[in-house]
Design brief:
Elements (H helix, E strand, L loop, with lengths): L2 H13 L4 H13 L3 H14 L4 H13 L3 H14 L4 H13 L3 H14 L6 H7 L7 H15 E4 L12 H16 L1 H6 L7 E5 L6 H11 L3 E6 H8 L3 H14 L3 E6 L2 H9 L5 H18 L3 E7 L17 E4 L5 H12 L9 H6 L6 H22 L7 H10 L5 H13 L7 H6 L5
Parallel strand pairs: 2-5, 2-6, 3-4, 4-5
Antiparallel strand pairs: 1-3
Helix pairs in contact: 1-2, 2-3, 2-4, 3-4, 4-5, 4-6, 5-6, 6-7, 13-14, 14-16, 17-19, 19-20
Bound molecules: adenosine-5'-triphosphate and magnesium ion.
The site of magnesium ion (MG) has 4 residues, from helix 12.
Family: Belongs to the AAA ATPase family.
Pfam family, one: AAA
Protein name: Tetratricopeptide repeat protein
Amino acid sequence: MSSEVVKQLQEAVQFSPENVPLRLHLAQVLLQDYQYTQAEEQYRKVLELSPDNAAAQLGLARTFYHQQKYSAAIVVLEQLEHHEPDHFDGLLLHCRILVKENSLQAARDIYQHLLQLNPGFRDEALDAQFRMPQQSSLSAEDDLEEEDQEGIFSMEKPDINFSDVGGMEREKQEIDLKIIKPLQFPDLYKAYGKKAGGGILLYGPPGCGKTYLARATAGQIQAEFINVGIHDVLDMWIGNSEKNLHSLFELARQRKPCVLFFDEVDALGANRNSMRNSGASHLINQFLAEMDGIAANNENVLIIGATNAPWSLDPAFRRPGRFDRIIFVAPPDTEGREEILKLQLRNKPLADLDYKALAKATAGYSGADIKAIVDMAVEDKLMEALQKGVPQPVSQKELVKAIKSHKPTTREWFNTARNYALYANDAGLYDDVLKYLDIKK
Ligand SMILES: Nc1ncnc2c1ncn2[C@@H]1O[C@H](COP(=O)(O)OP(=O)(O)OP(=O)(O)O)[C@@H](O)[C@H]1O
Ligand SMILES: [Mg+2]
């Protein structure tokens, strides 16, 4: 991460000191850049603004960890575990610290908890410490590798397609033209000098349907959907990761046609510089090489990445043949919200509803927000039905009440994105964000 980025972020933070995601991002960049005391200061400020912020608690604990302030780290992690007892990364760090401090019994307990949360979890150092010595023969090791993959990627044939995705007409059309049609008519594309292949990067605020749209894309072409969490790749495979990454791409080739989906892809891209001196930088180079390989051979493997933080992604990821098509997934517009409401309410007992009014009342709400509102209203009605002993259709009243009690969750993201779009809009990357915010360049 260049000092230029740090400087820009520091300026942006000065400009909006209460902006939690922005400050959190600055803290994370500082942490990745080994500037632990500065990262610590930023995480502390985030926690002043937002005391239960789990990402900040984890970040603060990491800065302590790197400064070998183990007991301070444990205090923060215990606070984190108090409100999120199953926080995987928090527990993992806690476990590592206990091993360092030689509190092996307590570390073993946490290690068991980690395995319960994710049976496919592997960690070389911790496994060596706690796992029974059982796999000695080669074939046993092969088994282990297969298990690994199951624990980490989820593979499915999605039962949803574009018709289950409300609104997003522009996004669907772009996906159709940029990856589905080239797959269906490769010769035609070739004849016009257009290369098929390459990946699509979806970015935007949380809950606006990136993952959902990627799954629906696979469903649309009856392809397999392989979902890979990059954090998992990084955290679990340190040491053995390159081999596993190769087997992942091999798996995709065997399962074609398929959609290979990388969630939180910025986590991989952002770490490239800070990992330069570690073995893990090979992982990123290999990731890019594997992607190039898929692109060059038109393999019927569609690659889709998703991120909330495109500004953290190393530009190398955006070169031709890689994530060279970038799509902003915006919060749904009025028609989109109406469609999502209808989709989320279908198959439920309903009174006559004024969808237009509900759509109007939910400006700025994400698809996930709308789903949460519908869930709330349905629960409300269910309670009433249980009390009265007669089924009650969901009506406008509960939905309006739920909308009032649920604030839209996309605003914070735009506070951060606005700064990047205004001050770091390389090659017009965030023009769509500016357009959405109605800011003229
Ligand atoms: N356009 C839509 N149509 C129907 N449902 C939607 C739509 N957008 C979001 N949803 C609902 O909201 C849920 C959350 O969306 P999703 O997980 O795809 O968001 P996301 O953009 O990937 O968020 P994050 O950045 O947090 O990963 C979906 O599972 C789906 O139920
Ligand atoms: Mg997602």
